[in-house]
Amino acid sequence: MRSLLSTVYNERNNLPPEIRIILYLLFVVSLFIINNLKIYFYVLLLIAVVVLFIPFKHLKKGWIFICFLLFFAFVSNLFFQNGRIIYKTGYFYITEEGLNNALIRTLRILFMIAGVKILTASTEITYLIKAVERLLSPLEKIGVPVKSFFQITVLTYKSLPVIKDNIYSLYKESKKTEVGSNIYNKIQNLAVILLNFFINSIKSPEKFFKKYNGNK
Q1: Which of 65, 83, 181, 184 might form a disulfide with 95, Cβ 3.0–4.6 angstroms?
Q2: Based on the structure, what is the number of domains in the chain?
Q3: How far apart are CA 167 and CA 179, in angstroms?
Q4: ∠ CA 22-28-31 to the nearest 5 degrees?
Q5: Number of other CB atoms surrounding residue 27 within 10 Å
Q6: Which residues contact 119 (CB under 8 A, 6 or more apart)?
């Protein structure tokens, strides 16, 4: 069974990025069409199986924020819904319809996030950006600067590690001369670091991109 699932997953990895993006979009559309909780649980099981074959390092980031988002989505849809009341305490009550809607909408968000994580885990971000560019390239015929926009997007994405390294270096240098350790001083120092970094990158962007090219 495991070897069969591995084969299926590897076949999926052979799909062109454009096809993967289209499949993901169709998956998202289907989530908003289907409102059957039983089907959602089958989808949850399928995603859980697929996730088993993805390296953990691709999945571990961002889950604290995601959990807060899912919790908020569940609670905000759970209470004060019309329908048959199954639990009540004081001014708060839960209905059968409210519980069903809360589960469906929360799982819907979870599935969309899981789909993105699976997509980015199996495909390089730059390939996905290029694939979106190719999918939207017909818009060039009506004057939309698709190619220019996505060239800048790819360049920006590839430059993010250099931005991170530069800001971290400036932060380490500022720590040596930092006066006071209260939160106000820390925010002030960070603001000065970011301001100086952006001013320098605007004045001499060629230095910035030389560093990037040297790291490629």
Answers
A1: 83
A2: 2
A3: 19
A4: 145
A5: 14
A6: 20, 21, 24, 128
Give the tens place of pLDDT for each residue, 125-184: 889 989 999 999 999 889 888 888 888 888 778 777 777 777 777 777 776 666 556 677
More reliable by pLDDT, 145 or 7: 145
Could you give phi then psi for residue 54, rounded to 5 degrees? -110, 135
Q: Is residue 109 part of a domain?
A: yes
Asked if 93 and 166 sit in the same domain, the reply is no
In a domain? residue 132: no
Q: Render the burial of 105-141: b for 16+ CB within 10 Å, e for the rest.
A: bbbbbbbeebbebbbebbbeeeebbbbbbbeeeeeee
Q: Cα–Cα distance between 179 and 174 in angstroms, integer?
A: 10
Same domain, 118 and 14: yes
Q: Kindly state the average pLDDT of the residues 99-122.
A: 91
Residue 13 pLDDT: 57
Residue 134 located in a structural domain: no
Domain boundary among 123, 151, 181: 123
Could you tell me the residue range of the domain that residue 198 belongs to?
139-215
